[in-house]
Every structure is written in C-alpha cells, then in structure tokens.
Design brief:
Structural class: alpha+beta
Number of domains: 1
Number of helices: 5
CATH class: Alpha Beta
Protein name: Thioeseterase
CATH architecture: Roll
Pfam families: 4HBT_2 (PF13279)
Shape: globular
Order of helices and strands: HEHHEEEEEHH
Strand content: 25-35%
Helix content: 25-40%
Length: 188
C-alpha cells in the first residue's frame, strides 16, 4: 500500500519550511519500517522508489510547484528512472534523503535523489525524469517555470544525465517485440 500517512507527515512537517530554489537540496529523514522489507530483510527495491516520493513531493511543495499544479489542474508523473543501489538498508535503520532538481529540457525535469546511512555511506542514488501533465499532455518545463513566477533557464545538463537521455532515446518502444513468436503476439 502507498504510504499516504507518511507522505502527509512529510508534507505537514515541511509546510512552513523555507522556499527551495532550483538546484537547492531538500533534506529529509526516514525510517525503514518492517513493511518496507523484502524477503532478505532489507529495504525492498520497489519500496525504495516509493520512499523517494517522500522526498520529491515535499521538495516540489517547497519550490512552489504543488500550489501552481493545484491552481492549474495539472498533474505530476515520473517518465523514467535509473537507480543505483550500493548499501543495504535494514529494518529500523534511519536514512537521510537528499532531493534536488538538476536541470530540464523541452519536455522533462531531471531530479536526483540519494539515501544516506548514519555512517555516511550512500545506500542508493536515483535519477528521475519527471513531467508536469495536463489533459492535453506534457506541460513544457518553461511554461511550468513561468507559472511559478520564475524566469530562469535550465542549468546545463550534466554529461552523465545527457548520456542517460541519449541511451533512453535509442531504447525500442514498444519493448521486446522480437521476444514473442508471431503467433503469440496480441492483435493491434
């Protein structure tokens, strides 16, 4: 189940936090609860993605995005992600999460998040491609920035994010069409 109560707690906790500018880091603290575990008694990889929401939503709130989205009737979606897992997070272990907007292009905003253990080890690092949406599709980031009352260009896209964007552009869609025999494919 989605951690609605935890998200409400984070939103409440940061409701009066200072505004967050582009590129500034939102820091939050979380606990790995028993229901976050996998069969090996560590933070489940899918749950890791969900817990990253607990940093992204308050970050967007502090940046002023949530208010603009409510006013305009816009939504927010994740359009891609890449996660690097390096250290186990065990039950009841506390982690520090760091979340920030890195840059944007003509369609997507690129965010990075990381989880850190008390001893200073990075447990995981994630890159997310996010989009603000409306009924007609994606809202261009420059329109979102303008709606937030800002007039700033995107920071330069770092080479490692550019490489990921380029790799995603070569990825076939729909995927795995060659993996099924012709007779088992669903009709168009």
């Amino acid at each position: 189940m989605y951690p609605f109560i935890r998200l409400a707690k984070e939103s409440w906790k940061f409701r009066n936090a200072g505004p967050l500018g582009v590129g500034e880091t939102h820091v939050s603290h979380h606990v790995c609860w028993p229901w976050d575990l996998d069969l090996w008694a560590e933070l489940n990889n899918g749950r890791t993605l969900t817990i990253y929401d607990l940093g992204r939503i308050p970050m967007a709130q502090r940046a002023g995005l949530i208010g603009v989205m409510r006013e305009k009737g816009w939504g927010l979606t994740i359009a891609g992600s890449s996660v690097r897992y390096r250290r186990r997070v065990r039950m009841m272990q506390r982690i520090e999460m760091r979340s920030r907007v890195v840059c944007w292009d003509n369609r997507f905003v690129y965010l990075e998040q990381s989880m850190w253990t008390r001893n200073g080890d990075c447990a995981s690092h994630a890159l997310f491609r996010s989009a603000v949406t409306r009924e007609t599709g994606i809202v261009p980031p420059e329109d979102v920035i303008a709606a937030m009352g800002l007039a700033i260009p995107s920071p330069e896209i770092p080479q490692w994010i550019r490489a990921w964007i380029d790799a995603e552009a070569t990825r076939p869609w729909p995927p795995m069409q060659d993996a099924l025999p012709e007779t088992t494919r669903l009709p168009a």
